[in-house]
Amino acid sequence: MQKLNFTPTGNLSDELVDQIRTMIVDERLPEGQRINEVHLAEQLGISRTPLREALTRLISEGALEAIPRRGFFVKALSIEEVNDIYPIRALLDPEALALSGLPNAEQMQYLNQLNQAILAETEPFNIIALDDAWHLALIQNCPNKVIFDLIHQFMLRTRRYEYGLMKSKDNVNTAIEIHQAIMDALEAGDLPAACQALKENMEHGRKPIVQWLQSRDSETGGTS
Amino acid sequence: MQKLNFTPTGNLSDELVDQIRTMIVDERLPEGQRINEVHLAEQLGISRTPLREALTRLISEGALEAIPRRGFFVKALSIEEVNDIYPIRALLDPEALALSGLPNAEQMQYLNQLNQAILAETEPFNIIALDDAWHLALIQNCPNKVIFDLIHQFMLRTRRYEYGLMKSKDNVNTAIEIHQAIMDALEAGDLPAACQALKENMEHGRKPIVQWLQSRDSETGGTS
DNA sequence: TAATTACATACTGTATACAGTATGCAAAAA
DNA sequence: TTTTTGCATACTGTATACAGTATGTAATTA
């Protein structure tokens, strides 16, 4: 039962990383859960070797942790991590935007399209993917590829947190409005204002997530 | 020929990552080189499975890259990467120091000891390790663990560049003087000045590396 | 002589086998 | 009834086997 018998590009573990990350984000693999390699491997239709290579990569991404001789575990969501990461993005994202400069007309149109697509989308997982795409499109001209990749990495790392959040339409609408404000500044040709708005976006994006985590932690159980 | 037959903590690949990174830094594995897994595995006295897991991790660190069906390659040193990373550290390090606050007397003494140890050391590899240790000690109180880890990651990633540089005693002395200037500001209780000095340190640290790379690239061959 | 094709070799990517440790349960003793 | 100890089971970590692709060389043809 091979997944794909035409694999001209990429290895099995490449696709596995995306697949397993998605399972962690949508909580099919809930936080704290121990990964049973044999079970997961046969569930995914592959052997343990490429699976372990994928799990190893997800440790670097911060989605998993390993305890020697005990195995891989899904990392717990933590308020500390949110409080740490969002201020970093408040530093990195505006810097990336400043380095990128103003987007051209075509790029502006694409940003608008994405923002409207977010409005139309109802599936939380897709909303997050579109939101991330918007933020990446904003800095697509960034000449500093390391910053770009770093931001991309943090996006993947915070998807688990935003997944819980984006179930509420209120938070989605807020995000759309902030995007609009940034785009307004860009269309006015005011790059510093756009950077400032982006910085505030990141600083304020932290708060509702922390609140959600706190309310979640005060409950004992959760609905599946 | 086992490396250690008492491994109560940690897996083989944990130690392999450090070992192979060192081989890349000191150019036993030169840039661009294709990694022969069979050869390297038997050279290190282990099998290909844990080796491949270690190599996978070193891709995340930026030391290697993988081409499907071709294998792992040591990433080439690039001026672009240096130009990208040092401005990021000029952003992150001062922020981490600001969050850390002033070090206490004991910590100041440790910073002084490290700086003197750098002066006494002659081996480039050790100089870099001490320099990194100094910069980490500077921000050891940083409450933002993600920034701390990020800086640590960038240190490992830039060791290859600094190894070429630290062969010149001039550059070592410059580093020591800058450390001293930062410590002077700290002992005066002026945290903002220390952050500013650290920022300038990072911004200026980039230049000699780029110059070294340019002069190196204009030569055809190199001494072993 | 230069170019192209066919073949032998080597290496990667994946699966599987094996060894050693952790875990949970049952039985026995206090 | 509670605690402790021994054993069976399950799972991780590592080694090895196998399949398929890339690579280099030699032979053949233009």
Short synopsis of the structure:
2 copies of one chain form a homodimer. Chain A is mainly alpha-helical and 224 residues long.
Task: Describe the 3D structure.
2 copies of one chain form a homodimer. Chain A has 224 residues and is mainly alpha-helical. In chain A, 70% of the residues lie in helices and 4% in strands. Chain A contains 9 helices and 2 strands. The first copy, chain A, has helices at 12-25, 37-44, 48-60, 79-100, 105-120, 124-138, 145-165, 169-187, 191-218, and strands at 64-67, 71-74. In chain A, strands 1-2 form a two-stranded antiparallel ribbon. The longest helix of chain A is centred in the C-terminal third of the chain and has 28 residues, at 191-218. The model of chain A is unreliable at 1-8 (pLDDT under 50). The A-B interface holds A 9-11, 13, 49, 52-53, 56-57, 59-61, 66, 68, 80-81, 83-85, 87-88, 91-92, 95, 144-147, 150 and B 9-11, 13, 49, 52-53, 56-57, 59-61, 66, 68, 80-81, 83-85, 87-88, 91-92, 95, 144-147, 150. The first copy, chain A, binds a DNA duplex (30 and 30 nucleotides) through residues 7, 11-13, 36-38, 46-50, 52, 68-72.
Task: Note the topology.
The structure is a homodimer of 224-residue chains.
Chain A: H1 12-25, H2 37-44, H3 48-60, E1 64-67, E2 71-74, H4 79-100, H5 105-120, H6 124-138, H7 145-165, H8 169-187, H9 191-218
Antiparallel strand pairs in A: 1-2
The structure holds a DNA duplex (30 and 30 nucleotides).
* Greatest contact between two chains: A-B, 29 and 29 residues
Strand order in space, largest sheet of chain A: 1-2
**CATH architecture assignment name of the largest domain in chain A:** Up-down Bundle
Helix and strand run of chain A: HHHEEHHHHHH
Task: Tell me about the largest β-sheet of chain A.
Answer: 2 strands, antiparallel
The oligomeric state is homodimer
* Gross morphology of chain A: globular
| CATH fold-level name of the largest domain in chain A | Four Helix Bundle (Hemerythrin (Met), subunit A)
| Overall tally of structural domains of chain A | 2
Number of helical runs of chain A? 9
Q: Provide mean pLDDT of chain A, rounded.
A: 92
| Proportion in β-strands of chain A | under 5%
Q: Using the coordinates above, name the CATH class of the largest domain in chain A.
A: Mainly Alpha
CATH superfamily of the largest domain in chain A: GntR ligand-binding domain-like
Distance between the termini of chain A: 30 Å
Computed CA radius of gyration of chain A, to the nearest angstrom: 19 Å
Number of strands of chain A: 2
Helix content of chain A: 55-70%
User: Poorly predicted ranges of chain A (pLDDT <50, ≥5 residues)?
Assistant: 1-8
Class by alpha and beta content of chain A: mainly alpha
